[in-house]
Amino acid sequence: MEQSTVFAARVDRWSRGRPLLVDGLLAGVIWLVFGLLSLLAGPTGLAVATATVLPLAWRRKRPAALLAWTAAVFVVQLVVLPIPLPANIAQALMIYTVAAHVASLAVRLGALGAALAGSLAAGFRWSTAPDYTRNAFVIAAFLAVFAGLIWLIGNVVRGRETNTRALGEAYARLEESRRQRERFLAQRERVEAAREIHDIVAHSLTVVVVQADGAEYAAEHAQPWDRTDARAVLATIGRTARTALAEVRGVIDVLRDPEGADDPAGPSVGLADLGRLVAAVRAAGLRVEIRADPAVFERTPAAVRLAVLRVVRESLTNVLKHAGAGATARVVVERTPGAVRVRVEDDGAGPAPGVVAAGPGHGLGGMRERLRALDGALAAGPRPGGGFGVEATVPVAAGGGRP
């Protein structure tokens, strides 16, 4: 059954792609069968049959014009011949063609009206005595019912084809929507990857710049040169660069393997990662006081833990950039009913006179967008007593876990 259905579908597609060829073959077959049979009415019958049947080769190309032609030939037939012809099947086929392939309701109703009028005229022309009138109405009624059924079938077929086209257009729109959604998701992945790489590079370069500036100052002013301090500075720079390189490679690996990004477990982020982040910032010369609830990294979803780490990293990077020398940062990560709260505050006075502050970046905006994706919120601004503060709240349920 399935193979026959597939074969029928292929035949249908082939015939729809070659309407002139198919209609030409159909006209030829009808003429060979019904046209030649019309020769029983003599040469006049053959001529009328030929004029009726052969134009069917263009029935789907110009249905309205051929309907008028067929009607005119039928009028001639009623005048010159007192009997029906086998080729009159062509009139029925034209009625079906107009009903099935013409969109104009007026033309379709005109075809039905012409068919009914022709049925009545044929009934009186082909009726015989002795009960001439009764026979005329019986013949007319039979032809009218037959023509009406043909017209109705054509309209049903036209409606089916219209629905099929509508479904095809709807499917095409859905397919285009799917492709647009895929492009949007790919673009969003690229934006998120770019934002992640920006955060990694910004934090790492900030640490590197602070260490390099400090080493440059010490090399110029410190007496004598302390090899131990120099080695510590270089070790911090190397460790920071290697960590940044590994994290950037991890982001690129996620882009290369999108299925890995759908892992429900998410990236493994724990309290140790927060500790390494704080240690790197301290090595850059910033005093950091931290109080972190271990439960935040033990009983919360991976997405929430990753968001916490990103907020702390971006906030401490901003402290390094903007707080100035001698600043102290305080980090608090605590669990509240149904959410995780992160506070990062500093008491910095800003860059020293003559030092150019880092230009405005996209860190706060990026944090807000990330937290918004988790139904979280971010508040940031100067503190009344001096310095700057950042406070983020991330609902635990947004990450897919239980409060």
From TrEMBL:
<keyword id="KW-0418">Kinase</keyword>
<keyword id="KW-0547">Nucleotide-binding</keyword>
<dbReference type="InterPro" id="IPR005467">
    <property type="entry name" value="His_kinase_dom"/>
</dbReference>
<keyword id="KW-0067">ATP-binding</keyword>
<dbReference type="GO" id="GO:0016020">
    <property type="term" value="C:membrane"/>
</dbReference>
<dbReference type="GO" id="GO:0000155">
    <property type="term" value="F:phosphorelay sensor kinase activity"/>
</dbReference>
<keyword id="KW-0597">Phosphoprotein</keyword>
<dbReference type="InterPro" id="IPR050482">
    <property type="entry name" value="Sensor_HK_TwoCompSys"/>
</dbReference>
<dbReference type="Pfam" id="PF07730">
    <property type="entry name" value="HisKA_3"/>
</dbReference>
<keyword id="KW-0808">Transferase</keyword>
<dbReference type="InterPro" id="IPR036890">
    <property type="entry name" value="HATPase_C_sf"/>
</dbReference>
<feature type="transmembrane region" description="Helical">
    <location>
        <begin position="105"/>
        <end position="124"/>
    </location>
</feature>
<dbReference type="InterPro" id="IPR055558">
    <property type="entry name" value="DUF7134"/>
</dbReference>
<feature type="domain" description="Histidine kinase">
    <location>
        <begin position="308"/>
        <end position="398"/>
    </location>
</feature>
<feature type="transmembrane region" description="Helical">
    <location>
        <begin position="66"/>
        <end position="85"/>
    </location>
</feature>
<dbReference type="InterPro" id="IPR003594">
    <property type="entry name" value="HATPase_dom"/>
</dbReference>
<dbReference type="Pfam" id="PF23539">
    <property type="entry name" value="DUF7134"/>
</dbReference>
<keyword id="KW-1133">Transmembrane helix</keyword>
<dbReference type="Pfam" id="PF02518">
    <property type="entry name" value="HATPase_c"/>
</dbReference>
<feature type="transmembrane region" description="Helical">
    <location>
        <begin position="29"/>
        <end position="54"/>
    </location>
</feature>
<protein>
    <recommendedName>
        <fullName>histidine kinase</fullName>
        <ecNumber>2.7.13.3</ecNumber>
    </recommendedName>
</protein>
<feature type="transmembrane region" description="Helical">
    <location>
        <begin position="136"/>
        <end position="154"/>
    </location>
</feature>
<dbReference type="GO" id="GO:0005524">
    <property type="term" value="F:ATP binding"/>
</dbReference>
<keyword id="KW-0472">Membrane</keyword>
<keyword id="KW-0902">Two-component regulatory system</keyword>
<dbReference type="GO" id="GO:0046983">
    <property type="term" value="F:protein dimerization activity"/>
</dbReference>
<dbReference type="InterPro" id="IPR011712">
    <property type="entry name" value="Sig_transdc_His_kin_sub3_dim/P"/>
</dbReference>
<keyword id="KW-0812">Transmembrane</keyword>
